[in-house]
Inverse folding.
């Protein structure tokens, strides 16, 4: 993976032809992870100053944007449930303030940097990018395609219409339920490689951004061939995402289609509105409505409907993928709340073994719920 130094000098897309994107099936990045150097671990070096944290930067204590209470509550959750590898980031979408950046590894005690490293397959979270590209080329949320099979894999033959295609879903419901074959069919029917690459780049895949802790570039290999392109659009490609990037990706829809980079130092918070447009305001509104369906009717419905644990107005996207040798169960949740006036965006990832206690959708909901519990 490409690890950038703290305060990377530019936000310039990388040359896709020269990207070294590791193949997930043979070289998963998590198998080669190295700890964050202690001198760059600002949160580990932070001290409490009044009601906030401050960390040494260039010889001076600089106030951090971190909410100490939320940070502590999330760290305690991860430790309590002994997550093998996990990280969760919470951010104010309108300002970019990172409110929490908690992580824990029971499998590798002492490992740090899980929140800023793109060690995790983006899985179905990448469907957000694909959906944005499809909306941008004019696919309506209510358009229907039919398919068969494809819960865990998509075959090339399934991209062609057949009399056996008995499951018919709207584009919106396909996103909400993470219907892989239908999403692959939408990709092959309406998108070309150039379009998906451009939208992925607009969402800052293959693009470094400034942050005071070294952060991986989230890499996305977008193939030129129809079948591999369809697999990538459905979330099965060689695409890697960091939780830090995941929270900013979720915030794009919250910010009506505009990119707001995460900020960790209070001195870097800007009062000026962001101007880097990722998608149009119309596409952002359509995407938000589709992400709401994930929570109300789709893959996140059960977790977000638990009695006493609801987060009003939450929207989001789940993701899951597994490696076989060794077995790693990756789960994701990215989203924001409330829908109409977003106050917090979250990204949560957990890598479990065969036996597990919590998954990322639960963790993402808890991050939201804890944020609102005292506000």
């Amino acid at each position: 993976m490409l690890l950038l130094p703290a305060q990377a000098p530019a936000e310039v897309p990388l040359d896709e032809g020269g990207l070294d994107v590791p193949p997930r099936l043979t070289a998963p990045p998590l198998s080669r992870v190295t700890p964050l150097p202690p001198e760059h671990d600002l949160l580990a070096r932070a001290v409490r100053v009044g009601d906030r944290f401050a960390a040494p930067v260039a010889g001076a204590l600089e106030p951090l944007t971190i909410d100490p209470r939320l940070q502590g509550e999330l760290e305690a959750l991860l430790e309590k449930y002994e997550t093998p590898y996990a990280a969760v980031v919470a951010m104010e979408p309108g300002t970019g303030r990172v409110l929490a950046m908690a992580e824990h590894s029971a499998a590798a005690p002492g490992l740090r940097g899980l929140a800023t490293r793109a060690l995790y397959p983006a899985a179905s979270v990448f469907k957000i990018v694909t959906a944005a590209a499809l909306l941008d080329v004019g696919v309506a949320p209510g358009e229907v395609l039919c398919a068969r099979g494809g819960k865990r894999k998509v075959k090339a033959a399934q991209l062609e219409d057949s009399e056996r295609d008995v499951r018919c879903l709207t584009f919106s419901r396909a996103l909400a339920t993470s219907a892989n074959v239908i999403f692959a069919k939408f990709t092959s029917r309406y998108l070309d490689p150039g379009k998906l690459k451009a939208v992925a780049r607009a969402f800052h895949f293959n693009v470094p951004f400034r942050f005071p802790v070294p952060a991986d570039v989230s890499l996305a290999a977008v193939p030129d061939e129809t079948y591999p392109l369809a697999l990538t659009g459905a979330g099965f490609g060689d695409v890697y995402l960091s939780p830090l990037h995941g929270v900013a990706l979720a915030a794009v829809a919250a910010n009506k289609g505009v990119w707001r980079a995460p900020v960790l130092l209070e001195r870097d918070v800007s009062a000026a509105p962001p101007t880097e447009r990722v998608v149009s305001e119309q596409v952002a509104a359509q995407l938000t409505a589709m992400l709401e369906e994930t929570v109300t009717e789709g893959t996140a419905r059960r977790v977000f409907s638990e009695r006493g644990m609801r987060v009003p107005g939450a929207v989001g996207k789940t993701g899951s993928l597994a490696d076989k040798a060794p077995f790693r169960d990756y789960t994701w949740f990215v989203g924001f709340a409330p829908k109409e006036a977003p106050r917090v965006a979250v990204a949560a990832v957990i890598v479990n073994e065969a036996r597990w206690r919590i998954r990322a959708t639960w963790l993402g909901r808890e991050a939201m719920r804890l944020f609102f519990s005292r506000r």
Remarks:
- Residues 1-10 have pLDDT under 50 and may be disordered.
- The radius of gyration is 19 Å.
- The chain is about 30% helix and 20% strand.
